[in-house]
Write a structure and sequence with these properties.
This protein has 139 residues and is α+β, with helices and mostly antiparallel strands. It has helices spanning 7-15, 23-34, 66-69, 84-107, 123-135; strands spanning 40-41, 52-54, 59-64, 111-116. The chain has a four-stranded mixed beta sheet, with helices on both faces. The N and C termini lie far apart (40 Å). The model has no long low-confidence stretch (mean pLDDT 85).
């Protein structure tokens, strides 16, 4: 399948995709705040630049888009039909970089929680995950 828009317009579209302060991130931050948790945002000094950092709990939270981070079995982690080789390489790199960051964070003694974009459709379940995670019962 051939792209129906110009390379320049595609580049412009892609440049509009936010890397931080996304709607899913804001949703997670609001939920955490309502639950009484206080946090910091995107600490550059930690591997992977986590989206949310809770120093009191030595915990970081990554809010992942299902498409970009390849949420296994999720309908939003579809594969584009054009430029297949490019996208496969891009996705593999995204996953590898994240896995490396998680290993490094664990080595430094940080606990890592990943919240997937699709999970935010049921905030009650996300809240339960937070409650279990911060009690020490990793979900």
């Amino acid at each position: 399948m051939v792209d129906k828009i110009s390379k320049e317009h595609r580049s412009w579209n892609m440049s509009r995709i936010r890397g931080s302060d996304t709607k899913p991130e804001k949703t997670v931050r609001t939920l955490l705040h309502m639950m009484g948790y206080r946090f910091r945002l995107q600490r550059n000094d930690l591997p992977g630049k986590p989206d949310i950092v809770l120093p009191k709990y030595k915990t970081v939270i990554f809010v992942h888009g299902c498409f970009w981070h390849r949420h296994a079995g999720c309908k939003y982690a579809y594969n584009p039909k054009s430029r297949v080789e490019f996208w496969n390489k891009k996705f593999e790199q995204n996953v590898a970089v994240h896995e490396k960051a998680v290993r490094e964070l664990n080595t430094l003694g940080w606990r890592v929680l990943i919240i997937w974009e699709c999970e935010l459709k049921n905030l009650d379940l996300v809240e339960q995950r937070f409650t279990l995670f911060f009690k020490g019962d990793t979900p």
